[in-house]
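Hey, can you fold this one?
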Amino acid sequence: MKSSDRTRHAPASGSVDHRTAVATETARFVAAVKDADPATPVPGCPGWTLADLVKHTGSVQRWFSVLLRARIQEPPRKREVDLRLPDREDGYADWLAESATVAADAFAATGPDVPMWAWGADQHARFWARRMLFETVVHRTDAELALGLSSTTDRPVAVDGIDEFLVNLPFATFFAPKVAHLRGPDRTVRFRATDGDEVWDVRLRPDGFGLDTAPPTATTADATLRGTAADLLLLVYGRLPYEAEALAHEGDEHLLAHWFANSAF
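Sure. Predicted structure:
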């Protein structure tokens, strides 16, 4: 993606307070896993147990908090964080709750508009709060589904999460190398929310891909996916297949297969 695209596709401020939502979503996560067996397998993250999932989420929160406090201006050269992880896995839920407190302290010390290096489109501290939120939301969902609990995501959060994923995906090649394969001869994948009027058009070009700025009514998509915002969020993160009953799809099946084979985050 060209540098001009970074500005054009930068995330717009929305109705979600990412910093407050991190605390809310972490509390939901903690409530789900508090008395659960840490050895429970997590289908959304093959090979992981519930303990692995909690450790990962809390580690991300603490790592991002270090970056925020340092107000980094270039990619970090090392990733050493004092996690203060409990010796016993049955203490992981309380440790995750403490991780959200660590994050809240970092948010209080670093305003959202502070310029910072970030791997995605938005070069400000708010990028890291937003990214932290959706790491927490998706893995909270993973935990609930692994435990057979009812799981949903509030619509404004889900809408913002879809946007956050699609805006930043073009920049994710350094840790998701298959993203580099998302090329095409001017082909468009459309994501349309059925519980609102949100539409995201992603255009694949010979030199890359990105969100299309043209109004959806002015273009025709080569493939379209429809679902509630909560289900579309699970779709883009690979927790739902596009053939799932909760979703509808139409158009170029090869394009859809190509997108989902290479957009894993």
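Residues 153 and 204 are 29 Å apart (CA to CA). Let me know if you want another pass with a different chain boundary.
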